[in-house]
Amino acid sequence: MTTDPLSREARIMILAHGLTIAEYVLRHFPDGRWQGDRCGCPDDRCTGHHHDANDRCSCIEVLAVEALEADA
Ligand SMILES: [Zn+2]
Ligand SMILES: [Zn+2]
After folding, report:
1. Cβ contact 68:17 at 8 Å
2. Residue 72, pLDDT score
3. Which tens digit of pLDDT belongs to each residue from 11-24?
4. What ranges do the domains of the chain cover?
5. What is the Å distance from ligand 2's center to 9 Cα?
6. CA of 69 to the centre of ligand 1 (A)
């Protein structure tokens, strides 16, 4: 499990949705190695493309909700 690249904010967001970091990472990268962006989006160029560096990532919010609904 390699979750180091995830930012603190991303971790807080994941946990706030009732997921564990491991659950979130494994959902996007089945080998357990996070290769997405620091902000928590599985697209490694999210910051600067999906949103500005100063803005919070809305992708992770959507993805966390989706992950929860998929498990329900
Ligand atoms: Zn994104
Ligand atoms: Zn992002």
Report:
1. yes
2. 66
3. 999 999 999 999 99
4. 8-71
5. 11
6. 19
- Nearest Cα to Cα of residue 10 among 30, 24, 28: 24
Quote the ligand 1 centre to 39 CA distance (angstroms). Answer: 8
Q: How confident is the model over 30-69, as pLDDT tens digits?
A: 999 999 999 999 999 999 999 999 998 999 999 999 998 9
Q: What is d(CA 55, CA 16) in angstroms, rounded to the nearest whole number?
A: 18
CB contact burial 4-31 (16+ within 10 A = b; e otherwise): ebbeeebeebbeebebebeebbbbebee
Cα(42)–Cα(63) distance, integer angstroms: 9
